[in-house]
Design a protein that fits this description.
Layout lengths: L9 E9 L5 H14 L2 E10 L11 H13 L4 E4 L5 H11 L2 E4 H12 L3 H15 L30 H36 L4 E6 L5 H12 L20 E6 L5 E6 L9 H6 L5 H4 L3 E7 L5 H14 L7 E6 L10 E3 L2 E3 L8 H14 L3 E8 L4 H10 L1 E7 L4 E8 H6 L6
Parallel strand pairs: 1-2, 1-3, 3-4, 5-7, 5-8, 8-9, 9-11
Antiparallel strand pairs: 6-7, 10-11, 12-14, 13-14
Bound molecules: guanosine-5'-triphosphate and magnesium ion.
Length: 426
Amino acid sequence: MDTKFTNQPTRVITIGLNLNDPHFDYSIKELNALAQANHMQVVTTVTQKLDHPFAGTYFGPGKIKSLKEIAEAQKAQYIIVNDELTPSQIRNLEKMTGKDIIDRTGLILEIFANQARTKEAKLQVKLARLEYQLPRLRTSASVRLDQQTGNGGGYTNRGSGETLLEMRRRTLGRQINNIRHHLKSVNKTKKVQSHQRKKMTIPTVALVGYTNAGKSTILNQLVKRWGTNESKRALVKNMLFATLSTEVRKLTLPNNRKFLLSDTVGFVSKLPHELISAFQSTLSEAANADLLIQVVDYSDPNRQLMMKTTMKTLKKMGIHGIPMITVFNKADKVGKHYPVQEGNSLIMSAQDPTNRSINALVKMIEQRIYRNYITVNLVIPYNQGQIISYLNTHADVLKAKYSAKGTQIKVNLPKPMLDRISQYQI
Ligand SMILES: Nc1nc2c(ncn2[C@@H]2O[C@H](COP(=O)(O)OP(=O)(O)OP(=O)(O)O)[C@@H](O)[C@H]2O)c(=O)[nH]1
Ligand SMILES: [Mg+2]
């Protein structure tokens, strides 16, 4: 399917089975937003209430008949299903409705494919799509090669019993291995970089949370105040999955305290497990962070569910035990007073016309990541000039004077940094 280059949005119908799920309406709303993010126009939504899905067809036969009529009358090109279907369910539904079927996982994968900009993100999406396709290869392709004509004799050595399907499976398997291998080497480089950062002891803070909550907007606000001049702005868009790569920015606070801030892929309910594993290295910025900032859209009535999904997704990625600040963003949309801090949470607006929201947030970040900082006096011998320049860049030098033994400085620095130069402490 190529929906990217057509001007007219593709007309689609979304369908969903309500199995007495209290969050059903919300999941349909989200499905429609996902379709929109994929440049599709949802012309109508058809739902059915059942205790169990029909094993082979998802919907019941009567419902499918009326779905076919609606799809024809509405000139819909695709039917988008709210759940992940089995390959045979997809096949049966396609046969019975005469329309192409895309399930929720397929739709999310497609958005990721259209949104991926960096080489790494493109490879990760490709990997996830291939993994999704592998068990779904159609048996209709299992025509025996040795029964085909016009295929030349090229395949005869592969064993006459080999089917086209098996061959396609093997090709996919090879492609998957190649991409995995490539991503592994990218990941290795990243690990080295993050290790070097750790050695420099610059704390890392990662923005996580549901897609469209305002993570990139918050990153941009912080960068605008405390980033270097050349820091790039992150893409902000009112659509799902605007950010698909990890953006890291270095921020310097007025007292020379520095930290790295990273922004990454947002979450959504039922995020395909193929994507979670393919994006593992992109998301590793969050796994290595000293502090997480969970951004929540405070104006969304489903924010509790979104928070639950975020926590579940983090857990699936093996991220736990990292201190967290919860930011209830977009308070301006609900007419609430902001900024208000309570313990580890902050009600704020990334569109606060004053600097109060962003100042409150940065203060909370600073208090948490600089908790282990201590102020000490050191005398650094004159032949150890590199230590002075290191401290000037990475620590908070409060006072410096020259003595007979060397440069005497008063400095505020993290404990691990002090441990490496503790022989100079006085
Ligand atoms: N009213 C209001 N809108 C906001 C606020 N913060 C962000 N937005 C808007 O919300 C939309 C999404 O913002 P992003 O920063 O792109 O959200 P994100 O969390 O990075 O989303 P993904 O990259 O898709 O995961 C944009 O249209 C922003 O302008 C806020 O505090 N108030
Ligand atoms: Mg973003």
